[in-house]
Write a sequence for this structure.
């Protein structure tokens, strides 16, 4: 046993407690440092994963700068050492400096300042990291460039949700179209959505807005289905009027076709408005109207039962239609009895002639 070795003092309970506290403090400090390093690493990773956006103008400027450097490099490398503008020593140094741009770095030949010509550093502005914003309708994270910006308010909604909102309102012709935020009093405009909606939908939106500005009592539409142009009643071009001064025959300024402004249908040539109104709705087509106008001109009669047009070329006025209905050709009324067929004033004259 080595009695000369100094004895290790036995720590007291208080010293042990202090030592444990120190160890715990050191351990907590190490944990905090590890957490800080981890957070810093994650932030660094996030920055690396962000896509750097450069505008077209910036990208074009970078390409021009690269081309200028390469062109200058080629020109100076191929130049003669006896150039009157650049001394031989300066030209040699110039070539060396521009040769170093092949690896991305070099010195300005006059100022001697360090250049970094690598593509990753050729930017005219600071890198712009993509920022994600949550849409307040679909609650999805969208890039800031995909978030709608209104001139009247600052509520954030993605382009897709705004487009659906506008189209649904236009389908019902509910204008003006408000901001989707229920607490916002601002309205959207076609100018706000110019980069979101197709031109066809924007034109339709403008048409709906114009229509909404016209009072219902003044709205009029061209009756031709392939036109349907919206007209002011005051703008309806008068071509002819009825005996009572009512505008009848009019011309659409868009398709240049005639229509009856009183009946609201394509022009019923040969028929008065009251005659047209007495027609069954199924008989108001353009072909039917043309046939009835011709029948009126030729003084043909119509069967009261089947509505067929009948032409008599000879014989008595007693007509029997193919459907079995009997009527008087002179007045068109039903043939009631052989001796007293109708009250037509010309019937007696017809009998006397026979």
């Amino acid at each position: 046993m080595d009695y000369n070795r100094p004895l290790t003092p036995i720590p007291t309970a208080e010293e042990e407690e202090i030592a444990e506290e120190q160890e715990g403090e050191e351990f907590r400090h190490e944990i905090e440092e590890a957490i800080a390093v981890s957070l810093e690493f994650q932030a660094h990773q996030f920055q690396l994963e962000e896509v750097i956006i450069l505008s077209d103008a910036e990208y074009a400027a970078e390409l021009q700068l690269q081309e200028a450097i390469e062109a200058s490099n080629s020109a100076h490398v191929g130049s003669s050492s006896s150039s009157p503008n650049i001394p031989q020593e300066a030209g040699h140094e110039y070539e060396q400096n521009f040769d170093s741009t092949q690896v991305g770095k070099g010195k300005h030949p006059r100022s001697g300042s360090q250049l970094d010509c690598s593509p990753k550093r050729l930017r005219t502005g600071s890198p712009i990291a993509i920022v994600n914003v949550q849409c307040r309708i679909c609650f999805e994270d969208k890039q800031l460039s995909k978030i709608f910006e209104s001139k009247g308010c600052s509520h954030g909604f993605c382009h897709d949700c705004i487009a659906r909102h506008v189209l649904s309102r236009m389908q019902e012709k509910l204008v003006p179209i408000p901001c989707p935020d229920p607490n916002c009093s601002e309205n959207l405009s076609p100018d706000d959505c110019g980069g979101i909606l197709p031109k066809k939908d924007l034109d339709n939106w403008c048409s709906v807005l114009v229509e909404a500005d016209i009072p219902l009592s003044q709205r009029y539409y061209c009756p031709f289905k392939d036109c349907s142009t919206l007209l002011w009643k005051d703008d309806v071009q008068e071509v002819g009027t009825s005996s009572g001064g009512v505008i009848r025959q009019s011309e659409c300024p868009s398709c240049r076709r005639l229509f009856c402004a009183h009946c609201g249908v394509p022009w019923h040539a040969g028929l008065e408005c009251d005659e047209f109104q007495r027609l069954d709705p199924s008989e108001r087509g353009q072909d039917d109207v043309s046939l009835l106008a011709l029948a009126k001109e030729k003084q043909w009669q119509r069967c009261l039962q089947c509505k067929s047009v009948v032409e008599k070329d000879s014989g008595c006025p007693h007509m029997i239609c193919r459907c079995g209905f009997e009527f008087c050709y002179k007045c068109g009324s039903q043939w009631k009895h052989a001796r007293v067929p109708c009250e037509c004033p010309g019937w007696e004259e017809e009998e006397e002639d026979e």
